Amino acid sequence: MTNEVHPVDQVLPLKQMFTLGLQHMAVSYVGSVAVPLIIAGALGLSTEETIILISTTLFCSGVATLLQTVGFWKFGVRLPILNGVAFSSVTPIIVIGSMPGVGIPGISGAVMAGGVFIMLMAPFLGRLRRLFPPVVTGCIVTVIGVQLLPVAYQWVGGGRGHPEYGSPLFLLIAVSVIGIILVLNRYGSPLLRNLAVLIGMALGAIVAFMLGAGDFHGVDEAPWLTVPLPMHFGVPTFALIPFLTIAIVMIVQMVESMGLFLAIGDLVGKKVSREDVTNGLRANGLASSIAGMFAAFPFIAHMENVGLVILSGVRSRWVVAMSGVLMCAVALIPKAGAVLAATPAPALGGAAIAMFGVVTAAGIQSLAKVDYTHNRYNILIVAFTLAISLVPVLAPALFKQLPEWSQPFLHSSVVVACLASVLLNLLLNGCGKQEEHEAQGHFEAPSELSSRSSLT
Which residue, among 118, 428, 108, has the nearest Cα to 255 in the 3D structure? Predict the structure, then answer.
């Protein structure tokens, strides 16, 4: 009897892990720096302070990623999950930072306390794992992909607010990236297929710069070196209202994280137990507490890298751990980060369409395996979950007049999908119905999936 290592736990050659880790970091970099940029602008921080805030956020993203992928003791879900700052944190952080006498030190204190709160709550939240049978996780995966697609479309058009948004030139660049990814997946070697997204983005960026659609201005202005230090913006301060605000936001984020853990577990073919969920949530809390010391923000799983796991076919968590190490390194060298940020939006958008599209397809594939013949309620769960959860994407103004306290639960299609599918499953199938687990297999990429992970 052989003890075969699961692809998630497989350690690849260092050179391959570096290039694949770089690919993960490259596709998530824009999302990683967007939140600190927005918050810095809203709070009126100087250029120097903004650079520091971006560096601390990237550094803490790397630490959070290592906590989730490598893990230690009872911390970390140990899946290929890249962690980053959630956009759901933006408005509450700005509100807290704008309060008289609060500022960045008050934000730091609230995030630190919120992280400790989540660590204490993790065992209780982990008990909810049984409320996520395959029909629920299939809905969540599908909604993840659909929610991300509008972001890809914005990048394809040149980025939100671009004066030439939707230019034929931008569309041509995006289509060229998609074409490169398709050609490499069809005719490339296994190694080239693994790196298809990174190669497509790089070649697309070169085409964009040759056609005058790129800008290296930010690279020239970025400093060579910065050192993220704890309490750079002052000693954290603690107050009840900022803490309660962050705690509510983080509870919502934990519901989203739980759904993501289980969905990613299904996608990579590894069972996620209640203990795994608890360890993952506990790691989110610890990462957020560490981030608070550095004036960064609450962390959850980045949805962007899920599509890359599927598209590359490499499920190793150590590859994503390498991306965490690279994020820590880039945080120290802003000029290197500026090079990644200089990737023209249309090139990034072409890659994003490929990644987010396969996430949606994986969700549909998972839902196709759900038993609708012997359980007629499952079709109702899927139908109503998708119809309700896509409101924030397709009709975002529909929920705006609902009570203020409900808004954190309604801002994200993934959160709505988690809540709606769990409640519908409880109502129609009862608590913890699990008989589909044996009938439904996990998502599998093409047959060469496992063999790709052993390439040198």
Answer: 118
